[in-house]
Amino acid sequence: MATLDVGSAQQTALRRSAAGAPDISGVWQSGGVSLYGDQGTAGPPAGSRGAAPPPRREPPQYTAAYAAKQKTFTAVDDPTAACLLPGVPRITSMPMPFEIVQTPEKIVILYESFHAFRIIPIDPQLRHPADVTPTWMGDSVAKWDGDSLVVDVVGFNDKTWLGGVGTVHSEDMHVVERFTPKADGTLAYEATVTDPKALTKPWVTGATLRTPKGARVEEYECIENNQDLTHMRKP
Amino acid sequence: MRTPRSLLILAAAAILLCPLPARAHHSFAAEYDANAAVAVKGVVTKIEWTNPHAYVYIDVTDEGGKIVNWAFEGYPPNTLKRTGFPRGLLKSGDVISVTGYRARYSQNRAAGREITLADGRKVFLGPAA
Questions:
Q1: Residues A117, A123, A126, A132: is their CA dihedral positive or negative?
Q2: What does the pLDDT read at residue B11?
Q3: Average of pLDDT values for A211-229?
């Protein structure tokens, strides 16, 4: 049986970069069986049992037009079933590791899932380029707020889902992510999604990110042998 | 046997603490039927160590003596490797038993759950429904 040595309750001082900011570099993962190297189970490590559960998450609250649009989709329409990029914040929930590379000037996140990457300049003014083209992963810029990395993301296309079936959004979606290292070695992740066209109130999601046991980011070429779509049907 | 209340609370906490839903690629229910368990024994004919899923194909002899080739879908290769199912563990010609869940719309196709090797070792091929 694999030893559970991730996410333990052991208290340690935060790692810090030479510039004084928290050092959040390394390999992280939010869930999935490979997080612990254990066969078939994806529960939390023994050390975290009894900890406070995460806050209950409310589903996205849609405007009438987008609620109607959501109903036109089924699970077969999920962009990731066609191996398309999951967008932000959904990419963080994928059961595969990602690596954060940190310098004083930028944060780079390399995701195993769907070959996604994000190059995130550090700019206390959170300025985005003037010529952003709508994309699957959007345009990200970050600043440090105390010990949290705050990432501001705009410039999305309207093709990704937030998570559940048909959880669409408009190109006006704005995501603010917070990555906050904790003394127990975990990285708290929270994302607040606003969208004046699609949502009637901000949608908040999050996860506790842990360092997967022995894992490194490897290749995942999703389109290689994607048989599933030919075996699925709309209900 | 009565389950101690403290254990029930721990179990509930474990469920609540589980991170965001962890389906990497597609909805399970759109393709497979969680209520249609399948268990077969046969001879491995092909292994596709591919993304987004690995596939194990086995020849199964049905009750009438006819040989039917089944396809069992599994985790992606990286996940299999990380959970104790390395590439090369299985090879064509191996006799294995496999459990899983039948496809809704395709014959002789299933989401694989567990493989029992000829020597009795068990490895997980995919998630529980």
A1: negative
A2: 38
A3: 91
Residue A51 lies inside a defined structural domain of this protein: no
Average pLDDT value for residue range A126-133: 97
ipTM confidence score:
0.86
Residues of A in contact with B73 (CB under 8 A): 227-228
Q: What is the pLDDT of residue A70?
A: 96
Residue A55 lies in a domain: no
Q: Cis omega before residue A44 (within 30°)?
A: no
Interstrand relation of A98-102 and A106-111 (parallel, antiparallel or unpaired): antiparallel
The dotted CATH code for B24-124 is 2.40.50.140
Q: What is the CATH number of the domain that holds A173?
A: 2.40.128.20
If pLDDT is split at 50, 70 and 90, which confidence band does B17 have? very low
Residues 6+ apart with CB under 8 A from B12: none
pLDDT at A214: 79
Chain B touched by A8 (CB under 8 Å): no
Structural domain span for residue A135: 26-38+63-231
Name residues 76-105 of chain A within 8 A of B (Cβ): 76, 78, 80-81, 83, 92-96
Examine residue A54 and state whether it is found in any structural domain, yes or no: no
* Cβ contact, residue pair B51, A93, below 8 Å: no
Any chain B CB within 8 A of the CB of A33? Answer: yes
Q: How far is A23 from chain B (nearest CA, A)?
A: 23
Indicate whether A214 belongs to any domain: yes
Report the alpha-carbon distance of residue B55 to residue B48 in Å, rounded: 5
pLDDT value for A106: 97
| Least CB–CB distance from B78: residue in A75, A220, A229 | A220
| Cα dihedral sign, A20-A24-A25-A26 | positive
Total domains, chain A: 1
> Over 60: is that where the pLDDT of A15 sits?
yes
Report chain A residues whose CB lies below 8 A from the CB of B74. Answer: none
